Amino acid sequence: MKASVPASIVCVAPFIFLLLVLGCSARPLYPLPSRRNDKTKQPLQTFRPYNVAHRGSNGEIPEETAAAYMRAIEEGTDFIETDILASKDGALICFHDVILDDTTDIAEHKKFASRKRTYDVQGLNTTGYFTVDFTLDELKSLRVKQRFSFRDQQYNGKFSIITFEEFISIALDAPRIVGIYPEIKNPVLINQHVKWPGGKKFEDKFVETLVKYGYKGSYLSKHWLKQPAFIQSFAPTSLIYISNQTDLPKIFLIDDVNVPCQDTNQTFAEITSDGYLDFIKEYVVGIGPWKDTLVPVSNNYLQTPNDLVARAHAHDLQVHPYTFRNENLFLHYNYSQDPYLEYDFWINEVGVDGLFTDFTGSLHRYQEWTSPSISDDDASTLLHKIASMVSKYRKT
Ligand SMILES: *[C@@H]1O[C@H](CO)[C@@H](O)[C@H](O)[C@H]1NC(C)=O
Ligand SMILES: *[C@@H]1O[C@H](CO)[C@@H](O)[C@H](O)[C@H]1NC(C)=O
Ligand SMILES: *[C@@H]1O[C@H](CO)[C@@H](O)[C@H](O)[C@H]1NC(C)=O
Ligand SMILES: *[C@@H]1O[C@H](CO)[C@@H](O)[C@H](O)[C@H]1NC(C)=O
Prior knowledge:
The chain is α/β, with parallel strands linked by helices. It has helices at 4-25, 66-74, 136-140, 164-172, 187-193, 202-212, 222-226, 236-241, 268-271, 274-280, 308-314, 339-350, 360-370, 376-395, and strands at residues 50-53, 79-86, 92-94, 117-121, 124-128, 179-184, 231-233, 250-254, 286-289, 297-298, 301-302, 318-319, 354-357.
């Protein structure tokens, strides 16, 4: 009996140390009821790689919908991620594809049948119903559906497309601080098809929206920590263009090795060279590469990782690869069909700084089990337990 008490203290020693650290910086340790301030939200965690909810919890709920984002917040995401496109009348919307065909019920709306078009999208003729040919009201009359047939179909037809502003309000209303991670999506196409008053460009409207809701500040600045945001784009021209409009941190997305850069037409080799990383680091805090370009894959087996992560880190650039998905179909054989093994590999062996995942809940549980955070409530509970253990020990 006696021996067991000091033994449990040994077990919790790291926690006591942590609590002492917390105690010094944030007294009182037990929150006083009179000081309990509900306006103080639990902060963004910054001690482990970021959990980025790719298009919301789209593994469960149709992508880019309010429900998918709220689910991701419940499941513990650090950032909700979205793709910003525009309507014909210039509204900024959350939608991934330039056409509505694969993730909405557009086919059932006979009155829109004549809107089908073919446009050049990054050098490829693409045919379908383009968001840029529909007003916001028309887009709002559509319903979103799940992209993949092997995912839950029960939410098809239940949710509408949301605007960038509606997306922001979901993040700001969250019960804790949740960051946003919006993409300037297909800016070349959008600027070709949509015109705004005063000669404003898509990028101007994008930044104006962020500014309107108070998003500003460099990475980890005091203001940024209150409303964290990363701006992402595959188009370096857009990231450079907005660099003197906002100091929010930016992430340069990098496509597959065969895909030329969507605005500058540079090759993968060019945009991942040391010379280019030197140039782009003046504008961005990190890169967002497709994960198979960092660790090449052959016959569904991982090959030797290349040096891009190491070189990006040497340039003081974060690395946030995409996209992590639970299903066997997406898991390379090395992971034994276990998405946790994939997270373990990328976080502990490759050493990335953030992960875009379709299953935020899985990544959150993995990180809580392997690298837990201690919230104020947990700390209080733990301290209470320790205090009662110590008092028992004193009596004997
Ligand atoms: C796209 O279509 C146009 C008109 O039909 C044609 O002239 C052009 O060559 C096509 N481009 C590609 C890349 O197929
Ligand atoms: C941003 O910087 C560029 C050159 O770096 C300059 O041409 C442009 O006028 C600047 N824009 C604003 C809004 O200051
Ligand atoms: C892009 O670059 C490739 C060579 O890398 C070239 O063949 C192609 O014509 C270029 N496209 C444009 C639109 O400049
Ligand atoms: C993945 O598995 C293959 C086949 O067993 C092996 O050759 C390769 O080294 C493994 N890759 C990694 C990164 O573990």
